[in-house]
Design brief:
Blueprint (H helix, E strand, L loop, with lengths): L3 H7 L25 H13 L21 H17 L6 H9 L2 E2 L4 E2 L5 H15 L4 E6 L5 H15 L4 E5 L3 H16 L12 E2 L3 E9 L5 E12 L14 E4 L8 H9 L3 E2 L2 E2 L2 E6 L9 H8 L6 E6 L15 H14 L5 H10 L4 H4 L11 H13 L5 E7 L5 E5 L5 E3 L11 E6 L13 E7 L8 E8 L4 H14 L4 E4 L4 H9 L11 H7 L12 H18 L6 H9 L6 H13 L9 H6 L4 E6 L2 E6 L1
Parallel strand pairs: 3-11, 3-12, 4-7, 4-8, 8-11, 16-19
Antiparallel strand pairs: 1-2, 5-6, 6-7, 9-10, 13-14, 13-15, 15-18, 16-17, 17-18, 20-21
Helix pairs in contact: 2-10, 2-13, 3-4, 6-7, 13-18, 17-19, 18-19
């Protein structure tokens, strides 16, 4: 028999908190629930989020008149077609078509789209790129923004108001491609009759031909219409091979593993001789950047080389609008920030997924959604925002050494070394470092960089913080070893911890007679492995890597505001999903830092505390005295 305690534990006491009935409208965060720390985060996002144009026109949907005589009705048709092509009253042509004549399928019923400023901005952007006959679009967006419906309307507009316009479209799978295609058919079937061009020549589950066949008086078949077509296919490498496309629409691009290969084959279909005249539109939520999403991220970062214009559909856009279609930017950003904090206790991949669904910045759109990453992602992103607004003062440069062994810092805008703070004199062991080196000279995209961080230990109430970083991939690794060695000397001969399996760097330091700068295996690593060793460096075993990750996570949690490197923060988010040489080097430095977890004193101060003894003849007796 179930007792009362078991009932409570299982949730069967029936004293449940029944939620109140509410509508499905956007819900503001009540002012009584504002959290000061989170409000500072809201303010930071507001400063960098930008503004959309302000609309002051109250739009209402047009209805096809039913009481006009034929001549006036035809004139009305002609004017509406002109407006769909050229735009009207602040709307672009595509927006006018979408808002006034398209019906979309809602969760419960069909409905006409509301006017939203961001939608008008999007369609205006599409029209401009299309008229360039050169530039395509790459769009990273938030979830549930209706992008598929808008793009279906864009394609339908092209096929209705142009002749011989051929569109190829795909989504992440064959099924999703057909679903996208069905949106075009739904829009077409619910258009007013005067805009519907017969499609009787071919209308299948994956192909739509905007033409029809008629017989002349002699019984001969003739094809009429716009001769425009839409083809939906699965995202295979050669899906469009041999076709000539006026537009290529790639939906859910962040979830297509072969996006790069698909692009290589499909771009030829958009070319006329040496010039691209067809328009690619690649859009979607970023997906798992460590896997299928990496091609979308790469294309975004190299958009100019691909001749793609970027469009970022931020998490607050279109989320809640006033009656004029203007976004409630402040309250929508606040909702996103508060929702993130509400989900902080979830697994890291769930929190990352939510951030990616509602990104407030482009880097957030490319947040890894697997369990990869290390540290509190919200704090990492907050510090990245701070660095974008107010970058930490730093100097790029390199080190040189005189013939008598004196190291000098030489500022150089092309240098790979980044100095945040010059060393402090007369303080022993104030600086320690960590290094993620290499032994080979290969230089290509997938090869790791060599990275090094020097940290100033905790001094008084100031936490430990980065004072120097160096990340490079020189053609000769000796150049890296030299700069790392000179950096160590410059920072008061700071001890440097490296991975023990990188013998090239150890041998270089030994031949240069600076092996004493290399740290031996730290006590923390000895405790983790349960064995004692006095060798140089550490072996990066799975247990040691977990220890490293724990130290990074702790530093982010306690002192994230003192991290000066945007790139390092970025690698924390991607840790485990790609090469993260900066993060590894910083983590190695933190491992060594654990061995120096005691107060720092200056050399002069330390000497002043050492008692000095001497001997004096006092009253005929030799007596020891303290000075």
């Amino acid at each position: 028999m179930i007792n009362e305690k078991e009932l409570h534990d299982f949730g069967l006491d029936f004293n449940v908190d029944i939620p109140e009935e509410a509508d499905d409208k956007f819900r503001l965060i009540p002012q009584s629930e504002y959290v000061p720390e989170w409000e500072q985060e809201v303010d930071r996002y507001l400063r960098i989020s930008g503004h959309l144009p302000k609309n002051t026109i109250m739009y209402t949907h047009i209805e096809v008149p039913k009481d006009l005589e034929p001549t006036r009705l035809n004139a009305w048709y002609t004017e509406q077609i002109r407006r769909c092509k050229e735009g009207y009253s602040g709307m672009s042509g595509k927006m006018y078509f979408f808002y006034h004549f398209c019906w979309i399928q809602g969760q419960k019923k069909k409905q006409r789209p509301d006017f939203r400023v961001i939608d008008n901005v999007w369609f205006t952007f599409v029209e401009a790129c299309q008229k360039s006959n050169e530039w395509g679009i790459i769009c990273v967006k938030r979830r549930r923004v209706g992008a598929s419906w808008k793009e279906a309307a864009d394609v339908l507009h092209d096929c209705i108001f142009n002749t011989h316009f051929n569109v190829g479209m795909n989504s992440k799978t064959e099924r999703d491609s057909y679903s996208l295609f069905n949106k075009i058919k739904f829009l077409y079937e619910h258009l007013p009759a005067f805009l519907r061009i017969p499609t009787t020549k071919s209308n299948t589950k994956s192909f739509l031909d905007f033409s029809y066949t008629v017989k002349d008086k002699a019984g001969n078949k003739n094809t009429k219409g716009n001769f425009s077509t839409v083809l939906a296919v699965a995202p295979t490498d050669t899906a469009y091979e041999g076709l000539m496309l006026s537009k290529w629409v790639c939906d859910e691009a962040g979830k297509i593993r072969n996006l790069a290969t698909l692009w290589q084959y499909t771009e030829d279909c958009l070319m006329q001789e040496t010039r691209r005249v067809g328009m690619p539109i690649i859009f979607g939520t970023a997906g798992d950047i460590g896997a299928e999403g990496k091609d979308l991220e790469y294309m975004w970062r190299n958009a100019n080389q691909y001749k793609l214009k970027k469009f970022f559909f931020a998490g607050w856009m279109g989320l809640n609008c006033d009656e004029y279609g203007n976004d409630d930017r402040v309250n929508c950003i606040r909702w996103v920030v508060y929702e993130r904090h509400r989900r902080e206790g979830l697994r890291i991949e769930e929190l990352n997924t939510f951030i990616q669904k509602y990104p407030l910045t482009v880097p957030e759109a490319f947040t890894v959604t697997t369990s990869a990453g290390v540290g509190n992602i919200i704090k990492i992103k907050a510090q990245q925002q701070s660095l974008r607004e107010i970058p930490v003062k730093s100097t790029k440069g390199r080190f040189t050494m005189t013939t008598n062994g004196v190291v000098n810092w030489v500022p150089d805008l092309m240098g790979k070394c980044v100095l945040y703070e010059h060393p402090k004199d007369a303080v022993e062991s104030l600086y320690i470092g960590g290094c993620d080196p290499a032994d080979h000279n290969e230089v290509f995209n997938e090869v790791s960089d060599l990275s090094m961080y020097i940290i100033k230990r905790r001094e008084g109430t100031d936490p430990a913080r980065i004072v120097f970083e160096y990340t490079d991939r020189p053609s000769d690794v000796t150049e890296y070893y030299e700069q790392a060695m000179m950096a160590s000397i410059y920072y008061n001969k700071a001890k440097i911890l490296i991975e023990r399996n990188r013998y090239g760097m150890i041998n270089f330091f030994e031949k240069s007679e600076y092996k004493y700068l290399l740290a031996r295996t730290p006590k923390g690593i000895i405790r983790v492995n349960g064995t004692k060793t006095t060798t140089y460096g550490l072996q990066m075993t799975p247990a040691n890597k977990d220890y490293l990750k724990g130290l990074i996570a702790k530093y982010v949690e306690d002192d994230y505001e003192f991290i000066p490197s945007y790139e390092l923060l970025e690698e924390f988010a991607y840790f485990g999903a790609r090469n993260t040489d900066r993060a590894m080097a910083f983590g190695v430095a933190l491992i060594l830092l654990e061995d120096y977890n005691y107060p720092v004193t200056s050399t002069a101060e330390a000497k002043s505390k050492i008692p000095h003894f001497g001997y004096k003849n006092i009253g005929g007796r030799i007596t020891r005295v303290t000075y």
